[in-house]
Specification:
2,3-Dihydroxybiphenyl 1,2-Dioxygenase, domain 1, 2 domains, globular, eight-stranded mixed beta sheet, 132 residues, homodimer, alpha+beta
Chain lengths: 132, 132
């Protein structure tokens, strides 16, 4: 169960990249808008995992709400799992609360689910199915 | 510049391990008290990087203050750098604020420094020198 990415909520992607790319020296692999999720994302690989900077495209949605409430900072982490159905069953059996009853599917056809921060000790935890 | 670890502040290590180890299925590699930092830590590898659960040993110190103010959750992330002096120079040149003027050295003789969250867009960012 390897780490896939760490997401960081920021108000302005250009300003955040001035730090993470220019001053810190991480490489910018890709930057694109994901309108269906209401965010623009910059991907910065850091070894096997990557940092994802998230800027909301409007004042609506989860990331905008997070910024309003908590300010910029660490938003969620994502772990790769080989079988998301099995992982969800195991979590439910352990009493964990998931944000959806069934996995969702992203634009690449990858299945994912979020664990409620209340179950994961304050961490918004995403599970991403990568069959290897 | 690879990710080394993600630290998660928790109130009770046993309860957090009931989720991260038992329900989620991560492996517990090590658990030990670090009295000089005022915390007990559990290390859970997640691929190349690892999750570190931090429980304060008393009501004093940074992690206890974090829990008091923000509750449980993502506390900091740590990146490996090959040359911490060069990384610090580059960050200072870029206007970033560091939490100490010189690197500190941990019990294993490894040099590290923290970047102020104000410079890293809300993220408490640790740099850890690993010469490879």
């Amino acid at each position: 169960m390897n780490l896939h990415h760490i997401a960081i909520a920021v108000r302005n992607l250009d300003e955040a990249l001035a730090f993470y790319q220019d001053a810190l020296g991480l490489e910018l692999a890709e930057r694109r808008a994901v309108p269906e999720e209401g965010v623009e994302i910059a991907f910065l690989p850091a070894g096997e995992a990557e940092l994802e900077l998230l800027q909301p495209l409007s004042a609506e949605g989860g990331v905008a709400g997070f910024l309003e409430k908590r300010g910029e900072g660490l938003h969620h982490i994502c772990l790769k799992v080989p079988d998301i159905d099995a992982a969800m069953e195991q979590l439910k059996a352990g009493g964990a609360r998931l944000l959806s009853d069934a996995p969702k599917t992203d634009a690449h056809g990858t299945r994912y689910v979020f664990v409620h921060p209340r179950s994961a000790h304050g961490v918004l935890l995403e599970l991403y199915e990568v069959r290897e």
